[in-house]
Amino acid sequence: MNALLLALVLCGQGTFIVRDTLPNGLVVVAARKEGLPLFRALLAFRAGALYDPAGKAGTAYILKDLFQQGPEGMTSTELAYAIEGLGGEIGSRVSYNDLRISLGVLSPHADSALSILARVVSKPALRPEDFQKLKRRALSRLQQVYSDPNRVVSRHFRRALYGEHPLGRPIEGDESSLEALTLEDVRDFYERFCYPNNAVLIIVSDIEQSKVIEMVRRHFGEWAPGKVKIPEIPSPRPVEGKYVEIIDMDVNQSYISLGHLGLRRSDPDYNGVRIMNYILGGGAFASRFFKIVRNEKGLAYSAYSYFEAGSKFPGYFIAHLETSVDNTNDAVGLVLNLIRDMKRKGVKKEELDDARAYFKGSLPRMTETYDRLADAILFGELQGLPDMYWEKDVEEIQKMDVDYVNEMARKYLDPENFVLVIVSDTSKLRLEIPGISPEEVHYGEIR
């Protein structure tokens, strides 16, 4: 039976999804979105920085930039001119779990765009001169990272939380890993993971799906599959006790991240945790963090929290603050008390009602543009979520009651076992927070 007929799914007003798998294993999802003559293609390999070789953090990061340097027989300048001639743009991005290349053009140029994308992903040139250029650029970018306190606190938070686990390594690498990185490392990563049978191609356009699939088969059908062996990586260990790291930096305020391991996106509790955190610190102007820490007490310029859901492994809960050095102790202490209060007492019915209304009202924004719809579909494919999961999520949230959300708080918040990273001027900071002993405080350097 025709797989295209079986895979037709209604996906919101004016949008349809067709799913197909090519003989070489490439999964293709074509969504029709009417309204504008746009064509967005997003190809992702199911391997990211999580699989960088030991001591070579930054491998996948460099590879994603090398894809934009052109395929065999085409320089980066020629690639740029070819895409510019179509009125389009190319991009690439890497996370811990995937590496993706995107290409957007006007829909009349869809066939030419797919021809270019197929060459880019199946036959990247991976030239030595391009590698050296991108390696120098990556090392130079690190200096920008090290001068940004928000990025410094983020990098150190991951290291403190995940330790030696690959999730603790920075995606963009550091000086030692980038200096050690060779072109052979990058080529080896490509040859291990970058095959059609380890990839998914998402296309959102105003073109009939069957025509899109035909174009994909024509341009990607000859791409040879390969043997992909995903390495076995153990799960990260949860935090036991308190680990505090203070990083000295010439700044006039404190940048603070506090958190612990969380849950996977596939966990059935995910939406319950989402709505609980919205009330705690994720709801911008509506959250307790914003109302109490920022507005009522005036202890922070910025105060929010979120659960970064993991894919293969548990993600994390993080509370982030920016406050004056003088207010650091009070701000951290108040946030910990608010987390404890949420865990012990839970949410109020009116808070839950407001949160449910927010998620219902924000649903159209999730897929209102071609790029957002492509990202949403790709996320679902990579996470193994059902079609139109964003609508199912909101439907599930509308049915939640106070008791269930309070159960999520008790289960997933842990204000007694956490890592706390503070980037501040240590000549002015004296850390004195109830429940944190001097033995739990460590001092580190920017890296």
Automatic annotation (TrEMBL):
Gene3D superfamilies: Metalloenzyme, LuxS/M16 peptidase-like. Residues 40-174 form the Peptidase M16 N-terminal domain. It holds the Pfam family Peptidase_M16_C. One of its GO terms (molecular function) is metal ion binding. Residues 181-357 form the Peptidase M16 C-terminal domain. InterPro entries: Metalloenz_LuxS/M16, MPP/UQCRC_Complex, Pept_M16_N, Peptidase_M16_C. It comes from the Bacteria. Transmembrane segments: none annotated. This is Insulinase family protein.
